[in-house]
Amino acid sequence: MKKSVEEKAFIPGSAGELEALLSVADDYGDSIGIICHPHPLHGGSMNNKVVHYTAHALHNVGMPVLRFNFRGVGRSGGQFSNTIGEADDLRVATGWLRQKYPARDLVVAGFSFGSYVAASQAQDLAATKLISIAPPVNLYDFHRLTPQMPWLVVMGDEDEVVPIPQVWQWLESEISNRQMLWMREASHFFHGRLLELSRHIEDWLTASAC
To answer: Model confidence over 135-168: pLDDT tens digits?
Structure first.
């Protein structure tokens, strides 16, 4: 992994400041990345291990990466808003990142709850790539989402949170830009498989010339 320097930031948001960490490096490419964390009411935060390893993957292919706490998490102001306010948080954080690094392609990623927030906003944010890790298709209406950019979906085939039959039902909708990656014997939280997950994301980004 490339050495990462992380800068703390507080981003003005509609419900209060958003606590964030920006991974920076000297050798930037042409993209920036932003990552959404899992469910705020179930311990999700920007320090989640899947989010952390995803940030490393994006950083390793040469981009500044922002991870942030949704409203009401950590030192972020406000209260949980059941995806609506969190979508606004993502838009605000993305705007801040784009001001810092203008004219770059945007990669949006999310894990679990965060994958729904990311996927729901990717089109409006003009993201060039989307990464959904363990999307909870049983809890949120992913069927209505049809983002048009290259889209990587990563699932563990032993996910104990998202019923696999419902994932297969979702996959019956033919979306040509969606690439599905199944990790054998991996759980929802990818215990013991985080480095492998990170490498898969790196490989996809590299193959798609990010």
So the answer is: 999 999 999 999 999 999 999 999 999 999 999 9
pLDDT of residue 174: 79
pLDDT band at 26 (very low <50, low <70, confident <90, very high): low
pTM of the model: 0.96
- Ordered by start, the domain boundaries in the chain are 5-207
Q: What is the pLDDT of residue 210?
A: 45
Question: Candidates 3.40.50.1820, 3.50.50.60, 3.30.1330.130, 1.20.1050.10; correct CATH number of 5-207?
Answer: 3.40.50.1820
- Strands of 18-24's sheet in order across: 5-11, 18-24, 65-68, 31-36, 105-111, 129-133, 151-156, 178-183
